[in-house]
Input
Amino acid sequence: MSNVHTTSDKTEEIRRAIVEAVTAVKATHPMVPSITNTITINLVANAQLAVGGSAAMVYLPDEAEALALMGGAFYVNVGGLLPIYEETLPHVARVLHEHAKPWVLDPVAVGIGRLRTAALSQFKLYKPSVIRGNASEIIALAGLWQLDGEDASRVRGVDSVDSVTSATVAAVALARWTGGAVAVSGETDLVTDGTVVVRSFGGSHFMTKITGAGCSLGGVTAVYATASGPFIAALTGTAVYNLAGRRAGARSEAPAQFQTEFLNELYQASAEDIADNPFEIEEVLS
Amino acid sequence: MSNVHTTSDKTEEIRRAIVEAVTAVKATHPMVPSITNTITINLVANAQLAVGGSAAMVYLPDEAEALALMGGAFYVNVGGLLPIYEETLPHVARVLHEHAKPWVLDPVAVGIGRLRTAALSQFKLYKPSVIRGNASEIIALAGLWQLDGEDASRVRGVDSVDSVTSATVAAVALARWTGGAVAVSGETDLVTDGTVVVRSFGGSHFMTKITGAGCSLGGVTAVYATASGPFIAALTGTAVYNLAGRRAGARSEAPAQFQTEFLNELYQASAEDIADNPFEIEEVLS
Amino acid sequence: MSNVHTTSDKTEEIRRAIVEAVTAVKATHPMVPSITNTITINLVANAQLAVGGSAAMVYLPDEAEALALMGGAFYVNVGGLLPIYEETLPHVARVLHEHAKPWVLDPVAVGIGRLRTAALSQFKLYKPSVIRGNASEIIALAGLWQLDGEDASRVRGVDSVDSVTSATVAAVALARWTGGAVAVSGETDLVTDGTVVVRSFGGSHFMTKITGAGCSLGGVTAVYATASGPFIAALTGTAVYNLAGRRAGARSEAPAQFQTEFLNELYQASAEDIADNPFEIEEVLS
Output
């Protein structure tokens, strides 16, 4: 059970951990490979570079394996699938799981297509450290993994019915299954490790007017996963996106301007500013 | 036969239809899937978002079919072909044709390569609602489809020999075959439904100094094809590109600045401003 | 043996040749096809357009062959390999070699993956006109081609131990094998034809904070290879990147702003300014 005192302690603990993750990334420039779609691949790489990471994108199974073993974390985004992914995706997921490498999954468009369904189904066993998606994707993935019927969680204090909060049960169920974290993107973002749910505030309406805000958040979250556990990585990625989005949005009148300003803000955001981006913590009643 | 009076009526009819198409897109954010090349795929998506649409890009046959059935229109661009397109392109074109879904074809680099020639030949039967290309592509596609020997059209009032007007006969022949519209991009753009030819004015020389102005115009035209017939969709896409290009070009000294300004102007252009972008109508003598 | 007089003559000769190459490209807009990775493909094309060239990217063997025969030079970048490249890469390299077409190779991530190793090994016989990479890639490629054991060169006046200079022996060995040029990118760039080593100054630390500075330099070098020999093409590409990078960096506070400014500066750089970008010449003792 939480109270004001423990929540305040938890808030400070989270802020310190965010500062540590951001500082470590800026100091070490960790290489984080990705398998990601061709639509937003350039933005994913530039966002990873902007926060201090280093990017490498691959398609082939043996290259994915080699980079998975070299990198501190890995990003898998199933948008825009190519035929070779039928081999690459399950192979790299197995390698990552066997070597206990943290990896971030973005289950883009779950439900469409045989290959995507097969790959996402297989991923249940390989337990991605962080799953990041919009509310529909998180609900659909929990359904695909048959976690939605488990009724394993109730969330205290969630009474609105907006789409992000409607994904809370699914997000908690997924996090409990993987033992990692789940991030749900929307007007207010939600991050959970299965025991607490954090709501993170900020962003801009322009983030839906450019392609790749979500994809690149997944890539950035994987960068932070080299320097912290899944929950803090997901929170840090969400926080820097909300911070940079709010700052860039305040100066922008149109989407292309916003994208430039947003990447600049990702680069300029300090560890302290990211940690101070507003969030609220709620415990999950099991 | 046209005269000042009927041309003026037609002009007003077109303007009203453009206002309706733009307004409907901004209100409903229609999802328009694409099969398009990796070079300009990001710009296509961002341009579709900027005018109010929603983007989804795919490679695999079953994903293309699923999205074709979900979307209000589809965009096919044959630049940068990948091997899987040998299956995907004819499959999705057949699905679109059978379900009477409007689709826009950009016959990039028609004439190069076995797969491209085979796919573009097959498309003759599946009758793309709008064909958009530069003059050489339109002439070459009419030749590939053996429409250029039909001598089915003469265009009144076309006396210049610039490359766009040199494609007028081919454009009219293609439009008559498909029963849709054809848009030819160049210094002055041409749009025809086989009965009238509209010349649309504006743009910027910087549009040839960035990659993807043509590709993204095809994607934007497909967005408007969810909200109007092929002729108005082609005209609306051409008009917003000429408007945004002229506005962005007036403020730009170099291409990267132009691309940012251009996407911003696509986003900010009002339905009335797009409809008021200058154009001239000529009837085709059959 | 060089002295002040001959070095000064050589400097002026190089400057005149750079002016000629840049001027010819701006006048003729040469089409330069590429096989390159999906991560930075858009930046490669836009950089080629910015300096005055024309871009065309392909994946399939027969398209690559057709464009190789049409183009004045070709760019091959082995980042982000797709399965079809197993056929395309050796095929196009053989065609280019047999038709004596200049081509630029960027051996991205040499050492990772079976397909990349096989392709890069085969390229030894097809002698790319220009090889462009970072120091590690140049050293690794010389190793893969077993040129590093030849001890064929010593470089006078190179006494620092930074990574670029550490690749000097490998770069000279590669250039002597191909009979072309090698460019090594780093804080100070190095270009050699196997007889002289030129160090080119400029750039910006932001070039490592955006993805594709190196890839697009390869593409731009291929544009200049249509209008000059490999050594001048490599020098001209390196010079315009150092010039535009320094100018853009001076006005930029963050990476996305830098990328826009950089492309703008590529477009605006005059032939004389590019030729005047600082460089130093050293002869290689054989």
Remarks:
- Chain C has a mean pLDDT of 93.
- The first strand of chain C starts at residue 31 and ends at 35.
- The CA atoms of residues 2 and 283 of chain C lie 7 Å apart.
- DSSP finds twelve helices and ten strands in chain C.
